[in-house]
Specification:
With 88 residues, the chain is of the alpha+beta class. The protein has helices at 3-12, 20-29, 43-56, 67-73, and strands at 16-18, 34-37, 59-62, 82-85. The chain has a single domain, classed as Ribosomal protein L30/S12 (60s Ribosomal Protein L30, Chain: A), CATH 3.30.1330.30.
């Protein structure tokens, strides 16, 4: 299963957290299964997310498209630069 289909499936099941602040919060308080970054997220935000993900031992994947297309994959009418897939 490719990343886009995985994201679509998890959005339907409401198992995603969207947005930089929400992802940082779940990294510090919970344990998501995976973090997905758009390929055009600002470098400083990307570094902070990767750092926190390493501490939490969470896999980080880079979506092979920009934040507008990541938003479309999520079925949202806005751009999405980062999302977390919740753990079960």
């Amino acid at each position: 299963m490719d990343l886009a289909n995985l994201i679509r499936e998890k959005v339907k099941k409401k198992e995603v957290v969207i947005g930089y602040n929400n992802v940082i919060k779940i990294l510090k308080t919970g344990k998501p299964k995976m973090i997905v970054l758009a390929n055009n997220i600002p470098q400083d935000r990307k570094d902070i997310i990767i750092h926190n993900a390493k501490i939490a031992k969470v896999e980080v994947k880079e979506f092979d498209n920009d934040n507008v297309n990541l938003g479309l994959v999520c079925g949202k009418p806005f751009s999405v630069s980062v999302l977390a897939i919740k753990g079960s």
